[in-house]
Amino acid sequence: MKKSFLLLTGAFLFFTSAVIGQFLEAPALQHYFDFSAEDTNKILFDFFDDNFIKDTEYFGPIASGMTLLGDDINAQLGWVPDKHILILGGVFARKDYGTPGFEILQPTWTVKLQDNKGISFLIGNIEGAMDHRYIQPIFQSLFPVSYYQEPYQNPLETGGQLKIDKPWLWFDLWINWQHQEYLNSDYHEHILQGASADLTLLHPNDVLKISLPLQYTFFHYGGQLDTAHTPYETIYNGAAGLKFNFDFSKNSSFIKDVMLEGYACAYKDLSRVSDIQLPYISGNGEYVNVDIKTKYGFGIDGSFWNGSDWVAPLGLDLYQSVSWVYKSYSEDSRKLIFLRLYYQKELLPNLYVDLRLEPYTDLNLKLTEYAYYIFLTYKRTFTLAKVHLPKFNDNAYSH
Question: Is the pTM of this model over 0.70?
């Protein structure tokens, strides 16, 4: 009965495309391309600089430990020719300390259209990673690192995105064209697609808000033009749940915010073939999370994960029943308890810090390990100039 419910939930998400997932918010890592009608005719300079330290002390059979120190910089020039249009272009660079050169150095560009009433559409580089608001079993947003056959780190997402931000609904529908193939390419195309939303069910006062969290991702690895001899894959992951949020910020109390949430999660391999490498066709999981924030920036977050035959190529590797690092290893059942201690603060105008200590316990393997993260981010949009273009004369091009 439980598996039937999860599959029905997955089908509902697939056909409605309405989703959300709560996550541990990270103002230091969120990078939105905001503009308003007052920015019309402005020339802008958007600067985002994230210095990071990541250390995962993992020695178990599922995930591999890793230490990373580096810097992500995205510098872009923007133009707002109309109150509904923003055009951005620039360069993104990732520098991992201890290596020569850059890990990533590539151009970025975005066209964002919005109605200034909460609806926007982006094409090019989209507002991705942490901005999607996924839970970690579905999508690893801190470091989109290792997934099926492509263990590299690339925080950039390029494709299209539709966003809705209303008092009763937050919605994000996106596609990330990760890897383009051509005729006779020796590799598959790689396409990621998903959605995430927050549908308010009840908001009786300033303190309590009850919402319906729904989310999904599709992972596609295949194509018709290539000569690659690796299996095709289309993998679905989805989650549905209930979230209670208590906002005490207006009372100036020590506890600023308390959030309780629970999810039923589903996994389905939609492209099962005889030479497939994954050991599971379908799976499920239950995810429960409690988050408490204080007005001083300190917080504590606790999670419980109970997964069976769980495969999520975009999810955090610790939740998986398969190991992307140790290919032959798998666990049918994973029961994990996470404790996250964090500090998030805007130290100075536009300068953000995010510190995290994240121990976890594997109840099946009787194993306790930990990770810690440090993010120091400066992000700001500057106005360089304001230009007044002549109005377009339609009569000049009439016949």
Answer: yes
Taking the mean position of all CA atoms in its chain, how far away is CA 373? 17
Structure confidence by residue, pLDDT tens digits, 31-41: 888 898 899 99
Q: Distance from CA of residue 119 to its chain's centroid?
A: 19
Tell me the CA distances in angstroms from 351 to 63, 72, 381, 384, one per residue in order: 32, 15, 13, 20
Q: What are the tokens at 4?
A: 């039937």
Cβ neighbour number for residue 169 with a 10 Å cutoff:
15
Residues of the chain where predicted confidence (pLDDT) is lower than 50: 1-23, 143-152, 274
Q: What is the CB neighbour count within 10 angstroms for residue 378?
A: 17
Pairing of strands 146-147, 150-151: antiparallel
Which pairs count as long-range contacts for 115-122, CB under 8 Å and 24+ apart, including other chains? 115/84, 116/36, 116/37, 116/83, 116/84, 118/164, 118/165, 118/166, 119/162, 119/163, 119/164, 119/165, 120/162, 120/163, 120/165, 121/160, 121/161, 121/162, 121/163, 122/33, 122/160, 122/161, 122/163
Q: Which domains does the chain have, with CATH numbers?
A: 2-387 (2.40.160)
User: Residues 114-162: pLDDT tens digits?
Assistant: 998 999 999 999 998 878 989 999 998 654 444 444 444 577 899 999 9
SS3 category, 335: strand
**Chain position carrying tokens 């666990």:** 331
